[in-house]
């Protein structure tokens, strides 16, 4: 697992960095391949922006969230990524089930 955190237009603090790492690291439990994540935390006037690029094997997820609190932005962006990962997994399960119906019965033709 590789998590890189970049602070833009704000001072980096250990507390925010540790919080972001903890929230993003929890997403590993939904994925088979090790995570490679780029987190960008920035402020624009009063808005706190959290932007995350997540790579796990061939899968790629991206989410951005803006709120008035950095911790809330990190929470929401983590929730968005979790929803994207779950949606992707559900689509794959649906494709596997649909493909089961397309396989012809080998013993029923004769």
Automatic annotation (TrEMBL):
Subunit structure: Associates exclusively with 100S ribosomes, which are dimers of 70S ribosomes.
Gene3D superfamilies, alphabetized: Ribosome hibernation promotion factor-like (3.30.160.100)
Basic and acidic residues composition bias: residue spans: 87-103
SUPFAM superfamilies: Ribosome binding protein Y (YfiA homologue)
Gene from which the chain derives: raiA
Keyword hit for NAD: no
Protein name (database record): Ribosome hibernation promoting factor
Record region (Disordered): 87-110
Keywords (A to Z) from UniProt: Translation regulation
Pfam family, one: Ribosomal_S30AE
The keyword Ribosomal protein belongs to this UniProt entry's keyword annotation: no
InterPro entries referenced in this protein's UniProt entry, alphabetically: HPF/YfiA_ribosome-assoc, RHF-like, RHF/RaiA
Lineage top rank: taxon: Bacteria
């Amino acid at each position: 697992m590789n998590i890189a955190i970049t602070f833009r237009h704000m001072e980096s603090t250990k507390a925010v960095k540790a919080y972001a790492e903890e929230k993003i690291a929890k997403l590993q439990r939904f994925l088979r391949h090790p995570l490679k994540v780029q987190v960008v935390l920035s402020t624009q006037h009063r808005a706190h922006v959290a932007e995350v690029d997540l790579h796990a094997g061939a899968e790629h997820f991206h989410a951005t969230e803006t709120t008035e609190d950095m911790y809330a932005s990190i929470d929401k962006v983590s929730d968005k990524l979790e929803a994207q990962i779950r949606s992707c997994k559900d689509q794959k399960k649906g494709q596997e089930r649909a493909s089961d119906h397309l396989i012809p019965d080998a013993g029923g033709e004769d």
